[in-house]
Write a structure and sequence with these properties.
Helix content is 34%, strand content 25%. By secondary structure, it is α+β, with helices and mostly antiparallel strands. It has an eight-stranded antiparallel β-sheet with strand order 13-10-12-11-15-16-14-17, sandwiched between helices. The protein has a five-stranded antiparallel β-sheet with strand order 3-4-8-6-7. Strands 1-2 form a two-stranded parallel sheet. A hairpin with a 4-residue loop joins strand 6 and strand 7. The chain is globular, with a radius of gyration of 21 Å.
Length: 414
């Protein structure tokens, strides 16, 4: 285990590993479901590289060490009157891990977190330090923003920020068929729109976030605990435990949870609306799809659950996002709909995930790099127009495959 505290120490560790003919994998918060990190070599953690190095208020830029967790970054930016324009619904990841896997939120005109990266500092497998951006080493920049840790260790990141803003978050049930049919309209009519739907229930639990020009009005601590911890997590987990013990109860439990969800509204600082506590453990797969393919994939996936009788007591999640130009981004060069499927911990998941993946394959679906999937480099290469350009950058940055492991050999090729 290596825990460097500076770029120079990262360089020294990589040179040591290279001289010994070993391998090294960078590790973040451990949030990913895939085997991106496991290695018989060295695990390199950036947990001593978590500082905000510079904030340029006028240019709305922040340069940070890449090991900083998102929730700490959000607090630091807020202190300067800044924020990230979009976030996912979990904020425990490190900046390096979030951009490396293509972590994203929702919003038809908003890209993933990697699309907010203006520049970054990468230490390659040869020990070279590359500071890249659109103006300098642009191909390395496009490859390194969503890199799976295959090019080197990202040590510093310069992020594009926006003025701090308040969000009004509204949760409300709606008929599922209508929500799916109106997805483009609903996504265009709000800054951020997504929905959840349980199997066996024809109701969508919609979440709409809009920017509002009013002060944040967070709920009192007791109310937040009731909503976020007791209802959203503890009651939900009790239902999951019951469904795991008696799968025949799952349809009724899913209907009950949907009815209990109800409607709610909250007005708060943007990052506090985007992210929520997630205490119930699960396994997840997510696919990035052409926006027009979402209705077919969702309908057929739900039909497979009904037809097979496979026990699924977690909701599906649908989000949207803008295209970007990172070579291995799941949203590369196309506006995207994301479909995420989950299974409660301790329950069988592989048959379900394989069935959904097969449907996504028919629409050139691209997997979320941090979540379960069964793809190989041979199957993935045709789905990414810039696959060969990424491979060229990888060959330059890691010719000895210091950063390889079994998982990367499978999904990127040896």
């Amino acid at each position: 285990m290596a825990r460097p505290a500076s770029v120079d120490e990262v360089v020294a560790e990589i040179q040591r590993v290279r001289a010994a003919g070993g391998t090294l994998r960078p590790v973040g918060s451990g949030h990913s479901f895939t085997a991106l990190v496991p290695t018989d070599g060295v695990l390199l953690s950036l947990d001593r590289m978590t500082s905000v190095l510079e904030v340029d208020r006028a240019r709305r830029r922040a340069r940070v060490q890449a090991g900083i967790p998102l929730h700490e970054l959000n607090d630091a930016l807020a202190a300067h009157g800044l924020a990230l324009e979009n976030l996912g619904d979990i904020d425990r990841q490190t900046v390096a891990g979030a951009i490396a896997t293509g972590t994203h939120g929702t919003g038809a005109t908003f890209g993933n977190l990697a699309s907010m990266v203006e520049a970054l500092t990468l230490v390659t497998g040869t020990g070279e330090v590359i500071r890249c951006s659109t103006a300098h080493e642009p191909d390395v920049w496009r490859a390194a923003r969503v890199s799976l840790g295959a090019l080197g260790v990202v040590c510093e990141v310069e992020l594009r920020c926006v003025e701090a803003f308040t969000l009004q978050g509204t949760d409300a049930p709606a008929p599922l068929p209508t929500t799916v049919a109106r997805l483009d309209e609903l996504a265009a009519g709000a800054d951020h729109f997504e929905f959840f739907c349980f199997p066996h229930v024809e109701t969508a639990l919609t979440r709409t976030n809009r920017r509002v020009d009013v002060p944040a009005a967070p709920p009192p601590a007791w109310r937040a605990w009731v909503d976020d911890i007791l209802l959203t997590n503890r009651v939900f987990e009790a239902a999951c435990l019951a469904g795991r013990a008696r799968p025949g109860l799952i349809p009724a439990l899913n209907r009950g949870l949907t009815k209990a969800a109800g409607s709610s509204e909250r007005v708060d600082r943007s990052d506090r609306i985007f992210a929520s506590p997630r205490l119930v453990r699960f396994v997840e797969m997510e696919y990035a799809l052409p926006r027009a393919a979402l209705p077919d994939v969702l309908e057929r996936s739900r039909a497979w659950i009904e037809r097979s009788g496979f026990p699924v007591n977690f909701p599906m999640e649908v989000r949207v996002g803008a295209g970007d130009d990172a070579f291995l981004s799941p949203a590369h060069d196309r506006d995207t709909a994301y479909l995420a499927v989950h299974v409660y911990r301790g329950m069988s998941w592989e048959p379900y995930f394989r069935a959904v993946e097969h449907i996504c394959d028919e629409h050139e679906g691209r997997p979320h790099w941090g979540k379960r999937h069964f793809q190989t480099a041979e199957r993935l290469a045709p789905r990414f127009p810039a696959w060969e350009r990424f491979a060229e950058v990888r060959e330059r940055c890691d010719p000895s495959r210091i950063f390889a492991n079994a998982h990367l050999d499978r999904v990127l090729g040896a």
